[in-house]
Amino acid sequence: MQFSGLALPVSRVMPNSIPLYIIGNDDRGVVRLEFVFKGGYGIQQKPLQATFTNRMLREGAAGYSSDEISQKLDYYGAWIETYSSQNANHITLYSLSKYIVPLLQLLSAIIKQPTFPADNLETVRRSGLAAYEVASQKVDVVSQRYFEKCLWGEGNPLGHVVLAQDYRNITVEDLQNYYNSVYSSNNCTVFLSGTVDEKVITALENTFGSDEWGSGCAMDMQFAKAYSSEFGRCNVKLDNTLQSAVKVGFMALDSTSPDYHKLRFLTVLLGGYFGSRLMSNIREENGFTYHIWAELDTYGDKCAFMISSEMATEYVEPCLAEIYKEIERLKNEPIEVEEIEHVRNYILGEMCREVEGVSARAEVFVNAWLSGEGFEGVNEYLKAVESVTPDELMEVARKYFCNDKMIEVVVGNN
User: Fold this and answer.
1) Which of 178, 221, 289, 376 has its CA 20 to 30 A from that of 61?
2) CA 95 to CA 33: how far, in whole Å?
3) Taking Cα atoms as reference points, which of 174, 392, 180 lies closest to residue 266?
4) Where are the beta strands (DSSP E) in 274-352?
5) Is residue 117 a contact partner of residue 68, using CB atoms and an 8 Å limit?
6) Rounded distance, CA 346 to CA 325, Å?
7) What is the pTM of this model?
8) Calpha distance 85→221 (Å, rounded)
9) Is residue 225 scored above 60 in pLDDT?
10) Is the pLDDT of residue 1 over 60?
């Protein structure tokens, strides 16, 4: 399979210096507008500060209550998504292009003039705490929390294991302080996709791009430099569970490393699809688990390699032994060309599916931008997929897969 590559976003700069990236174009009459504010929960001073601040933007703004915001969005058939990641806060509007002007006025109030009403904070707090308590009984969720704790080490915001008390400790003042430090035209990047014409761009510039707004300063995207991983086994007891969750991994490399795309390919080969080596061994041959997978997770420009699965407690140790067996095979046995070709076709087929629509394509480019590899990294990965060799993959495996620098997290009733 051949993949010719994706057309890169068109870059513009609005009059107040906000970068604007326009991704694709179509005639479906729908616009996806994403605002990205650098920072995320990697810079927060208190746990959950970033998540709550971003979530509470929709709960009230100058001239609008939360109900009025919801009613106006419903009237125009639009919706807003907010979420915080390790290094950014995201606010995304989905709208018909013909209604973009009144919706931009609403979005301007939400982003520039949030009120953070105390009553709404209590409602969001209760909802979040209830979801947290349910999630805290799931072995996969708890294993992810402790894996990140071991990955980043004590003292790093990305390594903090969230507690119920963290939900109770968040105040309106915390939200206002975080908002003031992050949300501004100086720290904003905009991604626009869908049915985009000069009318839409002009409306966007008139609303967000003419004058400076907000008090936050521009931030470095790649903030997450300091970490101190805790290698070895971390056992977490969780009562009344039927299965155990296992995670094995390590902090691998930067997204700007020349080995990045090769390690991504190797990760897919090892555990990134249904026919991978881990699935063939641990599910099909041994029956230890229903599903096991490997992935590279990005934290700013840092990338962590991680293998995850759930299984009956008696299979934990045999499963770990087989995981390390498969890793050793990558380091010592050349990979057959036929297997590489099979993985290559899978990756290229998945990429075709992932970029089928303009909105999906926008997400691919936003993620590449956030990881530090840049827009060009998307096509560079495709080139690496088409050209990688068995010798290169073995070299990468030997370079990065070191058993004495692995983190193991096991969560369950053990």
Assistant:
1) 221
2) 8
3) 392
4) 292-299, 302-311
5) no
6) 24
7) 0.91
8) 12
9) no
10) no
Work out the average pLDDT over 88-93.
Answer: 96
pLDDT at 3: 55
Residue 4: predicted pLDDT: 61
Q: Are 202 and 20 in contact (CB under 8 A)?
A: no
DSSP notation for 83-133: EE-SSEEEEEEEEEGGGHHHHHHHHHHHHHSB---HHHHHHHHHHHHHHHH
Q: Which two tokens stand for residue 201?
A: 């761009």
Helices and strands per DSSP (H, E), number in the chain: 15, 13
Question: Residue 113 corresponds to which tokens in the numbers above?
Answer: 């003039």
Other C-beta atoms closer than 10 Å to the C-beta of 99 total: 15
Q: Distances in Å between the alpha carbon of 192 and those of 92, 102, 174, 204, 342? A: 10, 17, 30, 10, 35
At residue 299, the 3 state secondary structure works out as: strand
Helix 316-332 and helix 260-271, axial crossing angle in degrees, nearest 10 = 130
Could you tell me the CA-to-CA distances from 99 to 31, 68, 103 in Å, in that order? Answer: 10, 17, 6
Summarised one tens digit per residue, pLDDT across range 37-80 is: 998 888 899 999 999 999 999 999 998 999 999 999 999 999 99
